[in-house]
Amino acid sequence: MWGARVRALFEGADLRICSAFWLFGLINNVLYVIILSAALDLIGPDIPKGVVLLADVIPSFVTKLCAPYFIHTVPYPIRVILFSLLSAWGMLLIALTPSYVDGGTISTKLAGVVLASLSSGGGELSFLGLTHFFGPSSLAAWGSGTGGAGLVGAGAYSLATTTFGMSVQRSLFVSAFLPIIMLVSFFVILPRRPSSRSARVSVVEEEGGIEH
Question: What pLDDT shows up at residue 49?
Answer without folding.
Answer: 81
